[in-house]
Amino acid sequence: MGDIRNILILTGAGISAESGLATFRGPDGLWEGHRVEDVCTPQAFRRDRALVQSFYDQRRAALAAVVPNFAHLALARLDAAWPGELLIVTQNVDDLHERAGATRLLHMHGELMSALCLACGARSRWSGDLGDGPACPACAAAGTLRPDIVWFGEIPYQMERIEAALGRADLFVSIGTSGAVYPAAGFVQQARACGAATLELNLEPSAGSAWFEETRSGPAGALVPAWVDEMLAR
Ligand code: BJW
Question: 88-123 burial, b for 16+ CB within 10 Å, e for fewer?
């Protein structure tokens, strides 16, 4: 790796696995007994709104019981100390990066702790349930709030900002993601095309491993702190 000033870090479910949150594509290919592509869609929400709201209400409540792990804490340490540009783009809808202290962060697939109003489009911080049809804090319409999650077929958040950061990155690092879901799965190719060095930190080689110049295999809780130490010692 040559001179590095601008870093873009992509994280996925694997970084939160050691905090106790399930990843999406387990060894059986299923997530909580479902194919994630079958349940995480606007169509599934239209088909059975109560079921989907209840599923997300339970996951939102369960977040309170988990805490950031060594990998989240190490990235927050890098965020605080790195003098150049740095952006953590997480696909995760949990809030463990921010609870660890990361600030240069965006959630491209939405957030569990946020609600999206189908009537006015406002995004509101939300920690309670949505299944009982509360009113939107922005427009006061009742029963119009849905989980602020990017489902299949919907456009991820802040794509322009991500594309711009990819174009400026000297180093692209992917942590704990299977490389199965686009557009995130294509970021490594975009970063390479713009001249960035590329590094994958994952429990095992992913679908996109061949695109990376360097791949390190192991748990994020060990790999990420070691990599952050290397970066801060440069
Ligand atoms: C560890 C570890 C440890 C474990 N340490 N590592 C055909 C071809 C190409 C694309 C498409 C296509 N058909 C449709 C599409 C597009 C579609 C898509 O990609 N589909 C694929 C199935 C092919 N994508 C979309 O629809 C997206 N929108 C879109 O493309 O809009 C068009 C557009 C884009 C850009 C500009 C303009 C227009 C939207 C995708 C939304 C994804 N949403 C979800 C649902 C969240 C729901 C919820 O949380 O309730 O987001 S799906 C789910 O997958 C979730 C995740 O963010 C995402 C990625 O999963 P992730 O994080 O990689 O998790 P896993 O489980 O897959 O992998 C975990 C990894 O960690 C594994 O590798 C483990 O080994 C590792 N690991 N323990 C380190 N301790």
Answer: bbbbbbbbbbbbbebebbebbbbbbbbbbbeeeebe
| Terminal CA-CA length for the chain | 11
Question: Tokens 């509101």 map to which residue?
Answer: 124
Is the CB of 23 inside a 6 Å radius of any atom of ligand 1? Answer: yes
Please say if 109 is a catalytic residue. yes
pTM above 0.85, yes or no: yes
- Confirm or reject: Cβ of 174 under 6 Å from ligand 1: no
Q: Tell me if residue 117 falls in helix, strand or coil.
A: strand
User: Which alpha helices (DSSP H) does the chain contain, by range?
Assistant: 14-17, 36-39, 42-47, 49-63, 70-81, 96-100, 159-168, 187-193, 220-233
Tell me, in angstroms, the distance from the centre of ligand 1 to residue 181's CA.
3
pLDDT in tens, 104-139: 999 999 999 999 999 999 999 999 999 999 999 999
Token pair belonging to 165:
């950061």
Nearest Cα residue to atom 51 of ligand 1: 109
